[in-house]
Amino acid sequence: MNSTLPPLEEIAMIRFITGAGRRHPIAVLVVWLLITVAGFTLGNAVFARMTTTVGTVPGSEAQRGAEALGDAKLAPPVITAVVSGPPASTPAFRTAVEAAVTDLRVIPGVVAVSEPFGPTAPAAPDGRAVVLDVELEHQGDLLANRVADRIRDIGDTAGVTVAVSGGPLTDAEFNEQATSDTRRAEIISAPLLLILLLIVFGSLLAAGMPLLIAMVGVGGTFTALLGLSFVTDVSIYAIQVTTMLAIGLGVDYALLMVSRFREERATVEDFDEALRRATERAGRTIVFSGLTVAVSLASLLVFEDPFLRSIGLAGAAVVVIDMLAAITLLPALLRLFGRRIKPVRRVQGRAVPSPWWHAACSARPCWSRSPSWPGSWCWPCRPPAPAWTPATRSRCRPAARPVNWPTRWPSTSRTWVGRAP
């Protein structure tokens, strides 16, 4: 019985999916563009639909505690505001606060409003801050926002600052923080990724493709989370986890395919054949990796904790989106712009990596095949280290005696050797 995997040519699914991107690059590009635009526009509504509480495990101690609190019929939700500024005896300050209290008491759904002034009213020792407690009938967002907006209007008075929190506003603050954190992560990570990819590829076009796949993954993440929020509760913390996965896997998969394409271009003269080999072979690895990660994350669904289920479901959806983008959008981009991407250099008829730190070696390359020196480095041409100085650069030209040095290259038939004097 032959237990070996079928040859690549027999894997029709990979060939069909990657071939669609190669045959119809414009159509594939338009589809993913629409998905990304929808994700960054309509998908932003997901932040308002996410929740900080996704329930408790049935039969758990936490659920019994929540039921006990519900049976106790605790006080209704309360919004608390601290109004600070000039002394409370200032006429303008006192008038603004009292007008707000009057308006709050006539809002439908407001049960009671505390008295901000008086001998029993809570106030700062110096008299420059007062506290307002507003009791609500329910946890509705509309009511809470209306009350909070009216209290914040007190801040229009010169020198007065207002801080409002509590009740349903707490969830809104969590959502706002998650939104700002996600945007900050995207703003910071995008330039850093571009710099690192430029170092790896040495080409703006090749470096931009992994970054583009990462951005498509983030846009698809928002769309997937928005769709999931209509069928189940999605934790607000899922946005950070899924965004991290979208960026990381998008760059990882794109790096794999673009690197494979550059290698194939160095060994295959025909552009179409090099593109087919790269997309099908790298696509097979990407599909296997993506399905493995997606199934692993989906295993969180077996737990009864709603929070873990939320993370597992959202994470699996994001991995599938990144995987599909890598095996459809990347072949389309390589079809359109692949001729401008330089292949890796060739040494002795073989396509080999060209590390950027090799630029100092102006004579023949240090990379060659030498079974007698498995896993060895030419010491001056080893990867960058603090000892890499202009003095060691000059040693690369006349070359030095090779020194055994462990490498991270998996093949023992590829070695670093010194040049003959």
Secondary structure elements and pairings:
Layout: H1 12-23, H2 25-41, H3 46-49, H4 61-71, E1 78-84, H5 91-105, E2 110-113, E3 129-136, H6 141-152, E4 161-165, H7 169-201, H8 204-229, H9 238-267, H10 271-298, H11 306-337, E5 346-347, E6 350-351, E7 367-368, E8 376-377, H12 390-396, E9 403-404, E10 415-416
Antiparallel strand pairs: 1-3, 1-4, 2-3, 5-6, 7-10, 8-9
Helix pairs in contact: 1-2, 1-10, 1-11, 2-8, 2-11, 7-8, 7-9, 8-9, 8-11, 9-10, 9-11, 10-11
Main attributes of the structure:
two-stranded antiparallel sheet; 12 helices; disordered C terminus; Alpha-Beta Plaits; SSD domain-containing protein; about 425 residues; single chain; 3 domains; transmembrane; about 10% strand; Multidrug efflux transporter AcrB transmembrane fold; MMPL_dom; 4-stranded antiparallel beta sheet; transmembrane helix; alpha+beta
Structure description:
The protein has 421 residues and is an alpha+beta fold. The protein has 3 domains: 9-51 and 173-340, Multidrug efflux transporter AcrB transmembrane domain (Multidrug efflux transporter AcrB transmembrane fold); 78-167, Multidrug efflux transporter AcrB pore domain like (Alpha-Beta Plaits); 361-416, no CATH class. It contains 12 helices and 10 strands. The chain has a 4-stranded antiparallel β-sheet, covered by helices on one side. Strand 5 (346-347) and strand 6 (350-351) form a beta hairpin. The radius of gyration is 31 Å and the shape is elongated. It starts with 11 loop residues before the first helix and ends in a 5-residue tail after the last strand. Residues 351-421 have low confidence and may be disordered.
